[in-house]
Design brief:
The chain is of the alpha/beta class. The chain has 14 helices and 13 strands. The longest helix has 21 residues. Magnesium ion binds next to helix 8.
Length: 331
């Protein structure tokens, strides 16, 4: 069968106009809220089977067709270079951190903050929930934030405190953050699928999706060696969906991760990010955070395809993430 590789007008991309053979499958997905090719293309075949109760074969066939329609075709390195230069970046409110990240947290990719208890992962997420909403000229993306809270640690009061500390009107910024609480790993994946349907309805212009923490449920839901394979498969599937969301919807995805004991000294003495290799290669940018003196925190960039390993110091202060410590006494 001849494949179509040319771009097609938007209206032709609509589900209802697909060939008969895949009509039923598309109708099922349509009923599940997946109305545009983009929202289907971000899913894995496994996810489509769960959403629409179709076979893996049908899901794969449909995905191949849709990805063709969307003209996901190879590009030259130069085209990619130009695209990369135009990518949106979100400031962390720390010049040191932004410089290490080459402008802040990038859109179209997954950024991971790993670290142990109190390392500053959640505080950085709160900070980004504010700065994403700033206009472009102030280091934001003029967009809203979807915050998936898996540990019940989202604190509107703390976000408001940070906003005030940065001379911003707290209510305006709290309004721009949608918070969803996930209770287990299936629920977490389900919320992400719902997020995709929200994105395509374009009710809100989300530019940042946060999962704080990505790891918690996967670590607690799958205990015992016999469940390890299922866990790793689900992590890979979920991670792949997140990577696709970042790409297709031109937004940043930030996830936090815990640490576990390590036999080598990869990042933090005797610890390394949790979830193993199923996850390790997914985030394009991985930051390892650890406590320093007082409000100081050390961020180490590692495992990056773009940059050498590097460390910088930032501070978690009452007014948010900063290059200066909490109190002058700490200098
Ligand atoms: N209002 C505040 N003013 C100043 N510092 C604060 C404030 N609230 C929290 N912090 C600092 O942030 C730390 C908590 O950091 P954070 O919540 O980011 O930890 P985490 O890395 O997410 O850890 P966990 O793995 O437990 O979730 C506190 O120990 C404190 O040092
Ligand atoms: Mg936390």
């Amino acid at each position: 069968m001849e494949k179509r590789v040319k771009a097609v007008p938007q209206e032709e991309k609509e589900i209802k106009k697909q060939p008969k053979t895949l009509d039923d499958v598309r109708k099922k997905l349509d009923n599940a809220g997946f109305r545009t090719p983009e929202s289907i293309a971000v899913c894995s075949p496994d996810e489509l089977t769960k959403i629409a109760h179709i076979s893996i074969g049908e899901a794969e066939q449909l995905l191949e067709k849709i990805r063709d329609e969307l003209s996901i075709i190879p590009k030259t390195a130069e085209e990619l270079y130009d695209e990369e230069r135009k990518r949106g970046k979100i400031t962390t409110n720390s010049v040191e951190l932004d410089t290490m990240l080459n402008g802040g947290v990038w859109t179209k990719e997954i950024t991971e903050f790993a670290g142990s208890y109190s390392a500053g992962k959640t505080q950085l997420c709160f900070q980004l929930s504010i700065t994403t909403q700033l206009p472009l000229e102030d280091g934001g993306l003029d967009g809203e934030v979807f915050f998936l809270d898996t540990e019940g640690t989202f604190s509107p009061q703390r976000v408001a405190e940070m906003a005030v500390g940065q001379g911003l009107e707290p209510r305006k910024f709290l309004k721009g953050i949608t918070v969803a609480r996930a209770f287990d790993s299936n629920h977490q994946m389900d919320i992400v699928r719902k997020f995709i349907t929200m994105m395509e309805k374009e009710e809100k212009k989300y530019k940042l999706l946060i999962i704080d923490s990505f790891a918690t449920h996967f670590r607690s839901d799958y205990t015992g060696k016999n469940r390890l394979m299922a866990r790793q498969q689900n992590i890979m599937q979920h991670a792949s969906t997140l990577a696709n969301i970042a790409q297709m919807f031109d937004m940043a995805v930030v996830v936090t991760n815990q640490v576990m004991a390590s036999i080598d000294d990869l990042a933090d003495g005797a610890t390394q990010p949790a979830l193993g290799l199923a996850w390790a290669h997914r985030p394009q940018t991985r930051l390892f955070l650890r406590k320093s003196r007082g409000s100081g925190r050390i961020a180490r960039l590692f495992d990056s395809p773009r940059y050498p390993e590097k460390e910088v110091v930032f501070y978690v202060t009452e007014g948010g993430i900063s290059d200066k410590p909490y109190s002058e006494d700490e200098w």
